[in-house]
Amino acid sequence: MSKNKRLQKGLDDLEAALHQWLGAFENKDRLVAVHQHLKGLAESARSSGVGELSARALRIEKPLAALVANPGLAAQSAIQTAAALQELLAWDAAVPPQHGGPPASQPQQVAPKGATAAPIYLFNSNPLLGEDTAMQLRYFGHSVVVVSDIERVGSAIEKRPPSALIFDFEYREDLMAKVAALAHARRPPNRHYPIAVISTRGNFKARLAAARAGVDCYFTKPVDAAALIDRLDALIVSKVAHPFRILFISDDPAGAAQYSDVLREAQMDTRMLHKPAEIFEAFEEYRPELVVMDVHTAACSGIDLTRLIRQNNVYLDVPIVFLSHDDSLSHELDAINSGADDFLAKPVDPAHLISSLSSRAERYRALRGLIMRDSLTGLFNHSAIKETLAREVASSERTRTPVTLAMIDIDFFKRVNDTHGHPVGDHVIRTLSRLLQQRLRRGDVVGRYGGEEFAVILPATPATAAIGVLDEIREAFSRIRHHADEGDFTASFSAGVADVTAHETADALFRAADAALYEAKHKGRNRIEAG
């Protein structure tokens, strides 16, 4: 949702007042403050044209007013009203941000966002404590429903299958038995979701009971929301890997199409190239993870074309597989010596073709991941982000669409390391990494540029729209609690943003975004500046 500053301040004020009230439920002054901020939010939303937010706020205002008039109402009424307020804030955070252009196609795995994703069900017999944990998870873009009666978890699953279950309780055999029953019931393919347990007990007996019950991950308090999300995301099986990209180079369209159809049925993505002279344009645009080509073509032999490809260091590791009717040893040796990785004699059995190509493409993807990914966060590293930006700028020039670069730096990060230690500093870096991946689009590219600095590429997005999106992420990050021996703390970041409108090369974009980041630091940090 695109919000003006007044509306955003109303949401922030309501959230702050709500947290204060949750910390002292019997304090009437804090309850009155929540009521006042809720009424102000409803008015701000109405005047800003955000009718649904205003209507949702007004629906809660009536029972909240009754609580203010009669604080002696049943505690359950206060709990239900507090939960409704938390859901209101979660609903607002779940509305996807409006980017300035259509979704880009650059593949990047992220979890489903906001209201469009299956919810996480979080059980805690204390609704207020459950809502506090839920709010931390919602900052990462997840929809979380708190259930205070474990008997209702099963019925909630029947109505809407979740993306995950989280049970927050002290170890008890009867509760663990119910978790085991729910774990057993998820066996059908359409009910495969991870189950996590959060507990103050981390001893062998409690962990063993959880393992026997079918629990997938076990966390002891205080739980780190980023670590919990990381683990759940790794377990959620609905995340489908992107299909391998296979480039066919052939002057026999019918024959190539036949094999292409076989690969597509195996969930691979294929593209045809019939003019060898366009090879580098195809590599730049399509970025194949494997090339299949005929040994003999009219315009150029496959062996010569392979040698041409291998002249470029960027494409040294892309697997190349030859197809040929001639299965003589000399031709196979020539193909391998030219830089090819495999030689398949036509006709190729479909099962053999799928197995041979998928195994090589999978190995290539894994090796590229090791080369291009940062070991701490799993994001693109410095070299990969520069390479990706150069490609996006070139694409922007061809398609006449905007592309924006944001440079992000965690504020006072040295102080975090000095005060809490480097392991805690690494945790803060991973938390921001996870938040960026969760809250940005599938087409946006996130990288760790070095140390505590990140780079974000937003294709098809002007700088003005990017600033709005990143500002929401900045606010969410500043509210996430990080755990340390010295006590919980929060962190913030600053960012500089630039787009191709005034900076036409990748190097110029980096310089402009860096300069804007420096300006944001100079103006007091925890802000975003445009360059």
Topology (SSEs and partners):
Blueprint: H1 5-23, H2 28-47, H3 51-69, H4 75-94, E1 120-123, H5 127-138, E2 144-147, H6 151-159, E3 164-168, H7 173-185, E4 195-199, H8 204-213, E5 217-220, H9 225-235, E6 245-249, H10 253-265, E7 269-273, H11 279-286, E8 290-294, H12 302-310, E9 320-324, H13 329-338, E10 342-345, H14 350-372, H15 382-399, E11 403-410, H16 413-420, H17 422-439, E12 445-450, E13 453-459, H18 463-479, E14 493-499, H19 506-522, E15 528-530
Parallel strand pairs: 1-2, 1-3, 3-4, 4-5, 6-7, 6-8, 8-9, 9-10, 14-15
Antiparallel strand pairs: 11-13, 11-14, 12-13
Report what the structure shows.
The protein has 531 residues and is of the alpha/beta class. The protein is 52% helix and 15% strand. The protein is built from 19 helices and 15 strands. The chain has helices at residues 5-23, 28-47, 51-69, 75-94, 127-138, 151-159, 173-185, 204-213, 225-235, 253-265, 279-286, 302-310, 329-338, 350-372, 382-399, 413-420, 422-439, 463-479, 506-522, and strands at residues 120-123, 144-147, 164-168, 195-199, 217-220, 245-249, 269-273, 290-294, 320-324, 342-345, 403-410, 445-450, 453-459, 493-499, 528-530. It has a 5-stranded parallel β-sheet with strand order 2-1-3-4-5, with helices on both faces. Strands 7-6-8-9-10 form a 5-stranded parallel β-sheet, with helices on both faces. β4, α8 and β5 (217-220) form a beta-alpha-beta unit. The longest helix is centred in the last third of the chain and has 23 residues, at 350-372. It is globular, with a radius of gyration of 27 Å. The chain starts with a helix and ends with a strand.
